[in-house]
Design a protein that fits this description.
Elements lengths: L4 E3 L5 H19 L7 E5 L2 H8 L9 E4 L2 E5 L1 H6 L2 H24 L5 H11 L9 H4 L13 H16 L1 H9 L7 H12 L5 H15 L1
Parallel strand pairs: 1-2, 2-4
Antiparallel strand pairs: 3-4
Helix pairs in contact: 1-4, 4-5, 5-7, 7-8, 7-10, 8-9
The chain binds zinc ion.
Length: 214
């Protein structure tokens, strides 16, 4: 297997290498596939991100995937600031790794809420709980995304794992493929969870989670 290559030498190479080994072990244990080691391209500033994208990018936008490779703000930039930021760097790196596994297992990168939710879950990027009304926005996030997708995706993924376990969500992922559309996803969801992927059933699930927690 190809070793991951760090574009631009960084001081804490060993720490990154160690971290990736551990992340790889956890993610391959869940997704039950292995991935080609990506190149990790470190971006030195917001200015450089803007230059690559040819536009002014939002502050929260710190990493992305292109052709199976990771682009991420240089950890030195995070390290220069606070501890919180350094922790954030590791979370983002693991988040992007999770996307690579999702793509390898399913062949696609949607439903977006599921992909983002799993990435936040594995990266332990704990998000605030959406209101019941906001949680239903999950239906908007099949192919599109916006800043709220992380809260909504994390909430549903965590709930499905807490209530039904990791095996079920893995089973759901195994049934996804390139022909997936929203209707087919509904059928697959129903088959795995014996609940309909509808507003009504999700409302019930939303409360089920509440009663389990309190
Ligand atoms: Zn993501």
């Amino acid at each position: 297997m190809k070793q991951h290559r760090l574009i631009k030498p960084v001081k804490n190479y060993t720490a990154i290498d160690k971290f990736i080994l551990k992340a790889d072990k956890e993610l391959s244990g869940f997704f039950k596939v292995s991935i080609e080691k990506p190149n990790i391209n470190f971006i030195s500033s917001r200015k450089e991100i803007n230059r690559i994208w040819g536009m002014k990018t939002e502050k929260w936008f710190k990493a992305w995937l292109k052709n199976g490779n990771i682009y991420i703000l240089d950890p030195e930039i995070y390290a220069k600031e606070s501890n919180y930021r350094t922790k954030h760097f590791w979370q983002i790196l693991k988040h992007e790794y999770s996307h690579l596994y999702y793509k390898k297992l399913t062949g696609i990168n949607y439903p977006k809420w599921l992909n983002e939710g799993l990435a936040c879950y594995f990266a332990r990027q704990i998000r605030k709980k959406p209101s019941q009304e906001d949680s239903i926005k999950v239906f908007d996030y099949f192919r599109k995304s916006d800043w709220q997708i992380y809260d909504v995706g994390y909430f549903w993924v965590k709930l499905l794992i807490d209530v039904y376990g990791k095996n079920k969500i893995f089973k759901l992922l195994c049934l996804l493929n390139q022909n997936l559309n929203e209707r087919k996803f509904g059928l697959i969801f129903n088959r795995v969870y014996e609940a309909k992927f509808t507003k009504n059933d999700l409302h019930c699930l939303y409360h089920l989670n509440n009663s389990k927690r309190h």
